[in-house]
Amino acid sequence: MSYKTVYLFLCFHVVFVHGKQSLCPNIEKCGCRESYKKLSQVDCRGINNMTELKILSKDLEFMLIPVLKIRQCKAKSIPSNSFFNFSIKSFSSSCPFSNIDDDSLKQIDSLRELKLFTTEFTEIPTAVGRLADLRVLFVNDGKLTHVNMEVQNMTRLRELILKNNKIVQISEKAFHGNSNLKIIDLSENNLTSLSPEIFEESRNLKKVLLQRNRLNSTKGIFKNSNIQEINIRDNRLKSIDDAFKFELELEVLDLGKNPLKQIGPKAFDWKVRQLKTLILDQCELFSLPSMVFQYLTKLEKLDLSHNKLETISPEIFQALRNLREINLSGNEIRILGDLFTKNSRLERIDLSENFIKSCDSIFYGLQNLKSIDLSANQLEVIKKSDFLTTPSITNLILSKNNISKIESGSFSYLEHLTNLSLSFNRLMSLNNSLKNAPELEILLLKNNQFTEIGKNEFSNSPKLKRINLGYNSLTDIHGAFRNLISLETLTISQNRLTTLTRNTFSEPFKLKVIYASGLLPKVGETDRPWKTKINKSSSPQRGWWRGSGSLAEAIRRADEPGRKNGGKRKEGKSDDCVSNQRKGVVR
Questions:
Q1: Pairing state of beta strands 88-93 and 113-117?
Q2: What is the pTM of this model?
C-alpha cells in the first residue's frame, strides 16, 4: 500500500511540474500562472534587457497574456521590437526605464493597463501618450518633473496615477482631452501651485488626490463641479475662506495637516452643502466660528482632532443632523456641556487626549451612540447618570484618567456593551457597576489599585472572554472567575497573589492563556517554582499557561491524550492548587 501511495504522489508531482514548465518552456526568468486551465499571469524576474522577452510570445503561441509583471529588473530601455506580436491586457514593470522607443508600446495588442514603477525619465514618454485605448496609467515612484500634454490623446483613460515623483509643474491643458478620466492621483510630489483651468475639461472626474505636495493655494482645485472627493492633506494651505467659487458635488474633503490656524465663518457655505466627510485634523486651529458648519446638513463624518481647540461654541454642531462620527481628540477641551443634543444619529465620538474632568450631560439623548473614547483625560468620578441615555454603546474607553470612583450601576444601562477599558486609573473597586453587562467580552483593568475582586463582580457578564488585571495589588480574587464559562485569556501579572485554587475557574475549563509574571512569593518559600496538579481530565478543551516552569508543563501534560493503558492517563494526587514560590516564573 505504501509503494502505491509513493508512486501516485510521484505521478502527481511530475504532472504538476511538467504542466508548470510547459507554459513558458524556454524562458527561465519567467513563470506562468493558470486559472481554470487558462493563462492568467506571467511573472518575470531579473530581466536585464527587454529583448529577452521576444521569445515569450512565440512560446505562448501568441495567446493573450492577461497580466505581465516584471520585477527585480535592470533594463533601462524598451527597444522598438520588444513586444512585436504580443497581446497583453495589463503590463506592470519596476524596471528603471530612462528611454522608451516611440513605437515600442503601440505594438502591444489589447493593452488596457500600463503600470511603470521606479522609472528614470523626467517626462511621460511619447510612446505612452500614443496608447489611445489605455484605461489605466501608473507612473509611480519615479523622477517625473513635468506633465505637459503627453496624455491628452488618451481619450479613454479612466485612471491616472502619477504618485511619488518629483513633479513641480503641470501644463494648464494637460488633461483637457481626457473626458473619461475619473481618478487623478498627483500625491507625494513637489507641486506648489496648479493652473486655474487644470481639471475643468475632465467632466467625468470624480476623485483628485493631491496630498503631500507644497501647495499654498487652492486655485484650480475646485473649479470642476463634478468632483466628489478631493484630498489636499499635508500641503501648505493657510486659508480656505475663498476656496469655493461654484456649487460643487463634493462629498469627501480632506484638508488635514495644513497650517490653517483659522477658518472664516463662511468658508463652508451652501456651495459645498453635499459634503459627507470633512477632515480638518492637525490644522493648528485654536477656535471655530459658531456657524461655520451651518450649511453642511448632510455631513456624516467630521475630524477636528489634534488641533488647539479649548472651547467649542454650543451651536456649532446643531445643523449637523446626519452626523454619525466626530473626532475631537488631541485638543485642549475642558468642558463640552450639551454640545451634541441635536446630533441624535451620532454613533462614534472620540474625545481622547483632552482635559475633560466630567461627563455631565455630554452624551445626553444619544440613543444611537455605539463607541465613546474618553481616554487620556482628567475624569475622576463616573456617575450613574453619565451613560443613562446611551443604551447602544458597545465600546467604552475610559483608560488613562484619574478615576477613583464608579457609582454603583453606572454601566447598568449599557446592555450591549462588549468592550470596556478602565486601565491606568486609581480604582480600588468596581462597586457593582457591572451588574447588568450581559454582552461584555473584553474588560481591561490594568494599572489600578485593586486589592481584591468581589465574588460576584463579574457574575452578570457570562460572555467575558478576556480580562486584564495586571499591575494592581491583588491579594484575593474570591472565586470571581468561577462563573465565567467563556473566559479565554486572563492577565494577573504584577500582583500580590500567592495562591490560585482550581475552584477559581469555571467548569468546563476553557481558559487558553494566563499571563502571570511577577507574582509575589509566599513568605518562607522562595526557592521553589509554582507547583500544580490541576486535573483537566473532565475538560478536553486545550488551554495552556503561557510561559515556562512546572505549571506550564503540568497543564500541557494534562492536555495530552493518553499514551498507554487504552488511552487512559495515569492519575496522580490532586490538590487543585497553584502556589507561586518565586518571581517571574511565567512571562
A1: parallel
A2: 0.85
